[in-house]
Structures are given as structure tokens and as C-alpha cells.
Amino acid sequence: MKKLIVITSPLYIRNYVDSDAFAKVKDKDTFIVCTRNITNKKSVIGSSNFAGEFEASKVKKDLFYFISLLLMYSNRKLNKGFYFYFKTRNPTIYYPSIRLKNKVFELIKIRFLQFFIINILEFFRPFFQPIALLRFCLIIVINFLGLTGIVVKIYNSFLPPNRELKSIIESVNPDLVLVPNGGMDANGHEVLALSAKLNFKTMLLIDNWDNLCSKSRFPIEPDYLGVWGEQAKTHAINLHKFESSRIFLAGTPRFDGYLNYKNTKSSLEGKYKEVINFPYILFAGCWPDWDEIGTLKILNELVEKHKNLLPKNCKILYRPHPWGNNSDRLDTLISKNLKNIAIDPQISNMIRPKDYTKRTDFQPDLDYYPILLDKSEFVICPMSTIVLEASVMNKKVLGLIYDDGKSFSTPSFMYENSDYFDRLLYLKNVKLLDDIENLDDLFYQIITTDMHVDKKALGYYIVDDGLLYNERINRICNKLL
After folding, report:
1. What is the pLDDT of residues 150-190, one digit of tens each?
2. What gap in Å lies between CA 286 and CA 281, rounded to an integer?
3. Strand order in the sheet with 341-343
């Protein structure tokens, strides 16, 4: 039976190809293709079974984005995430500008004038983005008239096939196509659009725990889904109306390094001994833009206050999210001269390139994260997958879900509007901070309290059957084929 692997993002090169996620699947009848815009694709195009490259046109990508937003809005009552994601894609309509408000307060001191000018400017803000405003209005009208289903059918029926991709698939003639996917991928949709016409089955390998509840429904459904665990399976059934038999608990290759850490620990300690050679509490940032530096300033003081309870010379080791805006503000942090704050040497030595969205070579190997977590005293972070990764490594987690009062996408804002953070406290190794005034108290509790993860509760998020990802995917493929 023939299989085809389709890689549509540099992130999937790192997470699936370079991690050997398909090592057990690969044989002489397994082929691989990728999209043309990826820069770090040597490991793909160097493969003996490399079948070619393709790319969706800009017009097709724009159309797919419109249909995805339409489906988000039309299904907004199913959960919190669909509507939240839609609103964050139309911020000038749904959310007041904090920057505009602060600027008006700075320039004008009369309260009545402040209120009047802010409201006038907020009214006109959407009109400065006419294309986005037109798209929003069109979506509202289509949904109001009950035409969403018809519009999606027309889109699928009249979308011309991707000629490059069609030619590749015809030459390979696969029985099953595997596509790592984050929930909104025009190139992945091109594959699904050809599946019925060329008579092959498709499986989307969902890349993250939030993808099925925070993005959109699929304009064309795949035949099967490979998901992280029971939580994502529930999202697939309840939000996407998938039958249980079409959903497989695949896990994620990103977690294999944690599951196999006992076997690799000694070699990793040698590999990274010059990088993390002091006691530290790991502060892992998230991608939304909020005031992480302000929190680090408070933590700098708390480390000093509680130093007698911490290892000698213990610091907060800060690792900003590689895709977040705080990665570009390390110079600002350094200028603060916070003696108890250190920046993760790996990220400070590897400056993020301007075209970082098309590559991942500025990020460390996946084997860096297990030892980074293992060597930490505990972990502090806003809501992100690091909560689960720290839990897999049985580390205590101080989760930040408070409003910093300065930013649009605060930890509180993200937490309250997302579905995938349910049951976090069931893990028992997690404490959540919803008010910055309580940071000292919870910091002290984390230091002085023994907390161990509930493995059964963790299994809700990530499948734990003792297998590595490549073994699990191989079993799934054999079952399907």
C-alpha cells in the first residue's frame, strides 16, 4: 500500500521530519512532498522518495481564509474558541485599542473630551482597514441569510485543483495521505480537495492540543484525524461532528523526548553542560504580546526575598516564546540589570531571523526541552503547551492567568476565552495565579509544597500507552491500510 506524507510548514519539518516521526512508516512505497515556501527543507528534498513541491496561489489562500472565518463565525455558539478566534481576527470591530486610549489620555486631560474623542476614533477605526471591514460585513450577511453551507459547497465545487499537487499525487497514486496540520492550512486543504477526485484516503495529524477548538471547522473533512489525546478527541466529536471510529489517539512527536528521557539523560547532560549549569526556575513565555518583563521584575525581587528557601545562586531563567514578540525585547530586559534574572543562553545566542515564520533553525533541537525542564526547580508560565510538557516531566507549575492591565492579549484574556485549558487543576502539580497581588504567596507555596502530577489526569490531554509517536503512527497506518 502506498503512502504520501505532505509537509506544509517549516514547523512540521522540525516536529515530524527531523524528529523521525515517520521512521516506522517509511518504506519503498512511502513518499514525501512539501510546499515550496519552506526554507529548512533539506531533510525532505534529500529523501530518496521525495516526490516534489507545490504551493497554493495567494488567491486560493485568501479564499480559504475567508471560508475559514465564515465557518468560525457560523459555528460560534458551539464553543468559546471559534468565536474568540474570529474576534481576534477582527480586533478593530470587537476590541477597543489600548494604545489609542493611552495616547488620548496622554495628550488630553479633560475627562469629557477624553471620552468623546476615544469613542469617535473607535467608531472610525474599522474604516482604516476597508478590506477587513468588507470581509467582516460579507460574513455577517452570509450567516444572517443562512447561506453558509451553500457558500462552502460552491467554494469546494468551483475551486480549481492545484495542478502541481495533482500531478504529484497522480504519479505516486497513494492509498493514504498523511498531513500534519494546525487547523487552518490552505495547502492542506488542497490535498483534501483532491482526495475524492483521485480516490485516496486522508489523515490530518493535528499538531497541537488547541487546534480543533480554537481555529475553524474544515471546509472539506479529512477521512481520519490523529489527535493528541482524549480531550482533542472530544473536540473532534463535539465541535467537528466526527465519528469516534475516524479519530485516532496519535499523541505528538514533540513529546517523545520526554517519554524517552531516562534513556537519553546522560548524553544530553554532556551535550548541554555548558548551556544550563546553574540552579534556576524556568520562566517560559507565550506567543501573545503581554508584559512579561514586568512580571520578571517582580520575580527578581521574590527570588531575593526567598533566597534562603532556594538553592544557592538560583535565578529565574527566562525563555521567551520563539514565535512571540517578547523574543525581540531581550535588549530591553538586559538593560534592566535584574541580577536574579538570566536569559536562556540558547535563545540569546541564536537571534531570531527576519523570515522566522518560514524556518525553525533558530530554535534548538527538540531534545533540549526535556533537559531544560528537568534541571529546573519548577516552572512559571502563562497558558501554553509548556504546562503539559512540565507535567510530563513531573514539575510543579505556577500558571499565570491574570490581567496585566497593559496588553490586549493578556494571560487572563486567553485563559477565559479558550476551551483547551479545562481540567488543568486536576493535574495537581499546577497552581493558577489570577491576581498579580498574590504572586508572592503562590511563589512561596510552590517553593515549600510537594506537588506531584496526576498521571491519569495528564492522560486526558496526551495519550500515554508506552509507545513512541512513530510506533503509534505505524500501528494506525497498518490498521487503516
Report:
1. 999 999 999 899 999 999 999 999 999 999 999 889 999 99
2. 16
3. 341-343, 315-319, 280-284, 376-382, 397-400, 430-433
